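S.,

Sequence below, as promised.
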Amino acid sequence: MPVRVTLDALIVRKGLKAKDLAQTVGLSETQLSLFRSGRVKGIRFRTLARLCAALECAPGDLLGYEFDPADLEGVDED
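The prediction came back faster than expected:
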């Protein structure tokens, strides 16, 4: 998948423990772990906002994207 979660790198840079971050944003450790591993299909904006507030970052700091032409397959042009 071209969208990847870069949360782990940010956690390390901030010197935080994932367990503490999960508690701060109101997630279970399991939920945070699933997001960190990229095994979730979506995230609520509210949760994303809480992560950004706790980490003092922007959503783009938590996610990365690598272009994949296959993502445009099947898209109708107007």
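The longest helix spans residues 45-55.

Coffee later?
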